[in-house]
């Protein structure tokens, strides 16, 4: 049906690219296709009935995105793989660019979609779900109490069943109702709120109903003594050296990381609730520095932690859930240079260039037209000369030069030439 609605070949190419991207805008389409997408083309694309506007841009309706993506993988697997790798590169650059600002929660979720294993993609990304996180506040305190009361009164066993639409592989996990409440054993909302108001958040669904609760304690000078002396946190922090602890005593306004004690939803078997919980967890991964988590010995949660690249502590366990089970912690440390090391390791697994020879590697990030422009920049051509030689307007050349500077992380032609010369 969509082929009949999109007779133009160039626009069909945009639709295929949009099917590979989870969310798209003019910039992302141009980047992964390695060519300029005009405003006119973009407006035509976003005017179709099967595309809708969301907070972070636009997206194809879920069923159509899956259908086009599946067809593209079968018809042109190498082209599909190329587009996928461009998506990896795009979010790699976005996270790198924002590394110092710690504002990459949304980019982290997109990044994990492209670099994560199939288990994570099928578990949390099969549909587009709207949810919001809301910090605990006196205005929603009663709702939080009602949520906890409701969970205790209506706790039930959960069977989590889902399948991979590409391979038809099925996954099945069981969570006993009693086990799903073990996180409440040491949960004391007033204490956590006094410790740091951001420690507890409510998860609301698309209708605004509270469907979950997250206990995510920031690690800084104001919380570290609490974490050292209270379960289920204390065993991990007591295992750290004095130097390691001092590194975590950061000012309140710049947390060294987070301890994710729980992300609970009413029913993990419900896809929308499961996705809200999973993406809440994933959003912390690259924006926090140090992430530590633990959970009752429920295979479903432990498989998720390890699939996301968390390392299980070997010698540090706790017995704080009252189930007599030695429970490990799971840790992801992306503080300082470790974040870039992690990013480079992940893109290397896709056969993409790492960051060691910056100038040479960043040439792979340029579109075909940007490569044409940079070749003439190397020859010393002015913007007007480049415009004449490539039959472009001077404004278009300036835009390409701006994008080249941004991708090479330089401010002018001299810095660009120095970086290219170094390679």
Task: Summarize the structure in short.
With 423 residues, the protein is of the alpha+beta class. It is built from 21 helices and 11 strands.
Could you give the topology of this structure?
Blueprint: H1 2-5, H2 9-20, H3 26-33, H4 39-46, E1 51-54, E2 57-60, H5 62-75, H6 77-97, H7 105-115, H8 118-124, E3 132-135, H9 141-153, E4 158-163, E5 170-175, H10 189-195, E6 200-204, E7 210-219, H11 224-229, H12 234-238, H13 242-248, E8 257-265, H14 271-283, E9 290-293, H15 299-307, E10 311-318, E11 327-333, H16 337-348, H17 358-362, H18 368-378, H19 383-390, H20 394-408, H21 413-422
Parallel strand pairs: 8-9
Antiparallel strand pairs: 1-2, 3-6, 4-5, 6-7, 7-8, 9-11, 10-11
Helix pairs in contact: 2-4, 2-5, 3-6, 5-6, 6-7, 18-20, 19-20
